[in-house]
# Entry
Amino acid sequence: MKVLHIITRMNTGGPAVFLDHLTKKLEDLNCHNIIAYGYCEGNESDYTSNHKFISKLVKIKSLHRSLQPIDDIRAFLQLRKVIKQVKPDLIQTHTSKAGVLGRLAAKSVSNKLPVVHTFHGHLIYGYFAKYKSAVFTIIEKFMALFTDAAVAVTNETKKSLISLGIDSKLKWRVIQIGVPVKSKSTKQLSSSEGLKLLWVGRFTDIKDPFYALEVIKLLANSNIKLTMVGEGELFEKAKLAAKDAPINFTGWLLNPFENIEEFDLLMLTSKNEGLPLVILEAANCSRATITRNVGGVGEFVKNNQNGYLINSGPEKMAEKLISIAKNKSELITAGEFAYKLLTEEFSVEKMADKYLSLYSELIIRN
# Structure
């Protein structure tokens, strides 16, 4: 079986890491993969430059995140050319622009070519102004005509998209993200009093780094420190806003969960999420997560068991962190539960098996 994946760009983040894990495991299952992708923008890190892929990578010269009609038409034509050259058995699209151009290009080459689109979250809440979200909803309703199956990474994502009228008649499948499970971590919690927190992500509005800054400022006298890994358009502004707060800004780091010497707890402050890979990566280190209760995070994080869900502003998260710091040993049990759940339900093997099963059904049906 040969699968062509089409994604807007491979910037360091969830969808790129997801494709890395998925395609490597699919190769083990005799499913060969090609990844067609575009260019990162100036403030983004290209994941492919620091990671070796087994799959063949094909760069589409005119494909990028920004809306530029001439480039978008060129990208569509280039994708058609790639599809004709590769002759895949199935196409899987990822992210919004590649989802539109890739699905249109696939069906323009052959209406019988099976096409799967994966919603890694959704762009309806938190990402754009309301009018832009309305436009995306209309586009996705139309794109259902060119989609043989839709995959959501959480049940919440699927439910939200269907409630907006993004075709309930589609062949929907929920396939949760999985990661390669490592041997159980023996790394101890930090020896100092207080807590060492880790935040990993793009410094963009949807990830809300300023929520994290507000939390730390509220904890000024508590010996709770934060390391923030990543960059983005809000990076410099966030550093200025932090002033003398106990926050270490590292920029992008290769394999941060392996290279950060000590952290006790992952902090997630996003306004919306599908199922963030960073939660699974923290669990792989036997670490729990404290997060705003948004999107699909609750499908992994069980409150006060393998993590902590916060339903309101920075004050509530700060209060919870003070409580955890007083009984730091509870993080050991929470981390062990997170690792156990990861191994049982969120492994890359389970994810790849489910995708391969879906591919086989669609190919036989077509």
Remarks:
- The first helix runs from residue 14 to 28.
- The chain has two domains: 2-179+347-365, 195-345.
- The chain has a mean pLDDT of 91.
